[in-house]
Amino acid sequence: MADIAFLLLIFFLVTTTMDTDTGIARKLPPILPENLPPPPPIKEKNVFVVLINSNDNLFVEDDYMDVKDLRAEAKRFISNFGRLENYSDNPQKAVISLQNDRGTSYEMFIAVQNELTAAYNELRDEESDKRFGKNFDDLTEKQKKEIQEFYPQKISEAEPVNLGGG
What we know:
The chain is of the alpha/beta class. The protein has one domain (40-157). The chain is built from four helices and five strands; from the N terminus they run H-E-E-E-H-E-H-H-E. The chain has helices at residues 2-15, 67-78, 106-132, 141-150, and strands spanning 47-52, 58-60, 63-64, 95-100, 155-157. It has a five-stranded mixed beta sheet with strand order 3-2-1-4-5, covered by helices on one side. Helix 3 packs across helix 4. It is extended. The N and C termini lie far apart (66 Å).
């Protein structure tokens, strides 16, 4: 009887599949040495503040915005090249500051992250099409690196704070 139970246990362990959780792919910055001087200050016009409150309201640069409009606005900010006064000087200096409240829903946070990532992906596709005549995904590693250096994805995710509901 013990042998049969043992064989059944082995059978179920071998044949059962375990779901592996997948998360959001993010590359963390490297740990910096302690004796490093502080980084140079970033001009306010090069920081695009995106804030989600506990009611899942989205505010971009202190103005209410619908999630569906975020991608276009982020693209306009990143690829401004100094044309508009309150937008970034160039893509290499553009930083998106994503802030959320502790009460922000997971779904809203992910939706905002997806729109910001999609903005970078679209800009990279447009630039790779302009330079190489093909989509970013079809480029060689060297070409991809060139486009990524032109449009570096700089999204700063701040610690959640208690922003209130309004």
